[in-house]
Every structure is written in C-alpha cells, then in structure tokens.
Amino acid sequence: MNSSSPELPIETSATSAEAQPEQAASVSTTALPAEPNASMQEYYQLQQDLLKVTLVLTGIIFISVWIFYSLNIALNYLLGACTGVVYLRMLARNVAQLGRSQSKVSSSRLALIAGVIIVASRLDQLMIMPIFLGFMTYKAAVIFYMLQTSIMPSSD
Amino acid sequence: MNPTVAAASVLAAALAVGLGAIGPGIGQGNAAGSAVEGIARQPEAEGKIRGTLLLSLAFMEALTIYGLVVSLVLLFANPFA
Questions:
Q1: Inter-chain contact B47–A43, Cβ cutoff 8 Å?
Q2: Is A71 part of any domain?
Q3: ipTM of the complex as predicted
Q4: Strands, E, within chain A: which ranges?
Q5: B6 touches chain A (CB under 8 A)
C-alpha cells in the first residue's frame, strides 16, 4: 500500500491535525452525547442478564452451602454475594457513564470489598473466605454468561 | 506479634497492592480508551462496545481485588502472627 496516497483518510486527518492542532485538540476532548442512543438497550439488557445469572447462582450456592456446611457460613456467603452484586452494579454504572460525563473512572467500588473484608476480619461472627468467595460469584456469573453466549449466540 | 513478621507482613501487603495494581491499571486504561475511541467511530455499536468493556473490566479488576484481599488478610487477619 502506498503510504503517500492522498485518498487515505488517516493520513488526511493526521495532516489536518498537524495543520490545526488547536482544532484537533478540541475534537479529541469532545464528550460523547449525554443522551444514550438506541443501541444502549443492548447494554442494559446485558446488565439485567448478568444480574439475573448472579442472583440465580447466589441462590443455588447459598442453599448448597446451607445444606453441606452451616447456616452461619451460608449467611457469610450471602453477604459476600450481595457485596458482589452491588460492586457489579457500580461497575456497570461507571462503564455506562464512561465518556459521557467529566467524572473519572473511580475505584471507589474497591473500597466496598475492602470495607467488608476489614469488618469480617474484626468481627468473630464473620469469616473472610466465604465472604470473598461469595463476592466472586459475580465473576462466575460473567463466565457463565460468556459461555452461554458463545455456545448459543442466537439465544439472547 | 513478632516484629520481623509484622514488618514483613506490612511490606508484603504494600507490594501486593502496589505491584498487583500496575498491570490491571494499564489494561483498564487501554481498554477504556479503545472503547471510547470505538464508540466515537461507531456510535451505532455503543451498546455492544460498552457491554464488552463491562465484561473485560470485570475480569481485569478481579486481579486488583486478589492483591487487595491478600494485603488485607496480611494486615488484619495475619495467619503468621
């Protein structure tokens, strides 16, 4: 491919950016429109699907832990799973706001799991391992959703 | 707690969070930047791009959380104390 071809849009835009750097800078910092378009319905559907899968997995694992271990451990697991659901909602909201507002990609959601782990290490009634594994339920839901959409792509 | 164990635990906790956040931080920045660039190029695919970004970030941020949990356990529930 001839790199000096004038019809290449990349080279044309690069040349214009060099010629007018202040204009290129203003274009690069333009935020995305505040109103979500119709394709965002797919994203909201993904959020709902992930939430449903997470809740179903949480229910199944909660009952299994209750049967095979004890109610105390199951409640610890449930606390971690609820934390994971809140974390996933915060992450989804953050991704939805990405590029729309001036707010930075914050890591305040990491404070959520940090606070829960610290409380669990301070209180005798709480255990760290069931809470952490419960928190990781959202990841199992993501893996399940990805496998489901990979095996059956037309089902969604 | 033995002072040597305490010092090693604090050092290990700092390294676990600090070093463990470098890779996911770079990866998340690259992914988010590429996603916004893709949305700007193809606004009609915004939902699909944001969905893929959400799944990617969910996987990447788990690596940071692993280091965070290890450091919190070392600081507040040290098994070697």
A1: yes
A2: yes
A3: 0.87
A4: none
A5: no
